[in-house]
Design goal:
The complex is a heterotrimer of chains A (105), B (161) and C (97). With 105 residues, chain A is an all-alpha fold. Chain A has one domain. Chain A is 81% helix and 0% strand. Chain A contains three helices and no strands. In chain A, helix 1 packs antiparallel against helix 2 and helix 2 packs antiparallel against helix 3. The longest helix of chain A is centred in the C-terminal third of the chain and has 30 residues. The two termini of chain B are 18 Å apart. Chain B has 161 residues and is mainly alpha-helical. The mean pLDDT of chain B is 82. Chain B has a three-stranded antiparallel sheet with strand order 1-3-2. Chain C has a single domain, classed as Helix Hairpins (Orthogonal Bundle), CATH 1.10.287. Helices cover 78% and strands 0% of the residues of chain C. Chain C is built from three helices and no strands. In chain C, helix 1 runs antiparallel to helix 2 and helix 2 runs antiparallel to helix 3. The C terminus of chain C is likely disordered. The chains are: A mainly alpha (105), B mainly alpha (161), C mainly alpha (97). Chains in contact: A-B, A-C. At the A-C interface, helix 1, helix 2 and helix 3 of A face helix 1, helix 2 and helix 3 of C.
């Protein structure tokens, strides 16, 4: 049973780290600021969620798990607000966006 | 008034949970002072806002969160596909306007935050009827325009008990 | 072992975020990267606390998550004001962050 729990927790941790690395690669691959926000969103939601969930499984039903859960809730409540205000500020400064057919909008 | 009471109880529980102190009188009084300060700030910032808090939302939140979790995971997989295989899954960033059907500002805030929390779509601005959204792909924009998330948030907001 | 790998992986992500903050090209890209660096720091503190068997680090991670959010919003407000007053529409080809 503990072996199984460890395996699930390790899977979460490894998948979360991979999601983080993929999101960071997306930061360099995407053409403009507006699409990079989506790549950063991957690391903010899936990577953070999986890593913290994996750590929670390691800790079991303790106060540590409660604190990890609180960190997850804070991250998932604040990260959309941060990306929203970033994009809004960029749009207000009339930052150009990349279009597929090759012309800016 | 009831939400202020709930806030004080919640903040006190949060403080005790994080600090773990029960018996040090100085620290306890500092904790009480900080809880009261935050409650005062909240009262000052919401007393001019006539819209009542809908505490009933809390009780339907777990159902909505579990649906949102699935949506977050599937949109994450979609965005990761487009990062790893840009040739097979090209991106097509675009701005769209999504209509919303929520009536309270809390409902609109939940909807806009959910849009931003799912990668592939970011809510930018809210006017009286629509939300301006930047979508990474045409599919993400069409998916949002189909309105399932909007309906679910409206149902979450409407529940009476 | 796994925890060491995870900590290392998060460090790599943090390095990539720093590189992205250095490369820019706009000030908004930099703030986005710094925000990402901050949230990954929270994860790193948590994972490192488990690695060294000292989960007390979680309190630090918790406060770091909040401070990072407030810091990003504050930096953003500053940038927004500067760019809307002095250089309307000058965000696209800016190179000084």
């Amino acid at each position: 049973m503990t072996i199984l729990l460890d395996l699930v927790s390790w899977t979460f941790l490894v998948l979360g780290t991979l999601a983080g690395i993929i999101g960071a690669v997306g930061l360099f691959r995407f053409p403009d600021f507006y699409s990079r926000v989506h790549a950063a969103g991957v690391t903010d939601t899936l990577c953070a969620g999986l890593v913290l969930l994996g750590l929670m499984l390691q800790a079991g039903l303790t106060l540590i798990s409660v604190k990890l859960m609180l960190i997850l809730v804070f991250l998932w409540l604040t990260s959309p607000v941060a990306s929203h205000s970033l994009v809004q500020a960029a749009l207000h400064s009339r930052l150009k966006s990349w279009r597929r057919n090759g012309e800016g909008e | 008034m009831s939400h202020l009471l709930l806030l004080i109880i919640g903040l006190s529980a949060f403080w005790v949970l994080l600090s773990g102190f029960w018996d040090n009188l100085l620290l306890l009084s500092l904790g009480v002072a900080s809880v009261l300060l935050v409650a005062l700030l909240d009262w000052r910032s919401t007393s001019s806002n006539p819209e009542p808090y809908r505490l009933a939302v809390l009780h339907r939140l777990p159902l909505y969160w579990s649906w949102l979790l699935v949506a977050i995971v599937s949109s994450n997989i979609d965005v990761m596909k487009r990062i790893l295989f840009p040739r097979r899954f090209p991106i097509d960033p675009q701005f769209t306007r999504i209509p919303y059907t929520q009536h309270s500002s809390l409902g609109v805030a939940i909807f806009a935050n959910s849009i931003t929390l799912t990668p592939g779509t970011v809510a930018i601005e809210v006017d009286d009827t629509h939300i301006l959204v930047h979508a990474l792909t045409g599919e993400a924009a069409r998916d949002l325009a189909r309105g399932e998330m909007d309906r679910r948030v409206t149902r979450l907001e409407r529940c009476e008990g | 072992m796994i925890l060491a790998g995870v900590s290392l992986g998060i460090l790599v992500v943090m390095g990539l975020a720093l590189l992205s903050a250095y490369l820019g090209p706009t000030v908004y890209d930099r703030i986005l990267a710094v925000n990402m660096f901050g949230t990954k720091t929270v994860l790193f503190i948590a994972a490192y606390g488990f690695l060294t068997g000292r989960p007390d680090f979680l309190d630090i991670a918790l406060s770091y998550a909040l401070i990072n959010f407030i810091g990003v919003i504050a930096a953003l407000r500053y940038v927004e004001r500067v760019y809307s007053v002095e250089k309307p529409g000058g965000g696209a080809d800016d190179d000084t962050a």
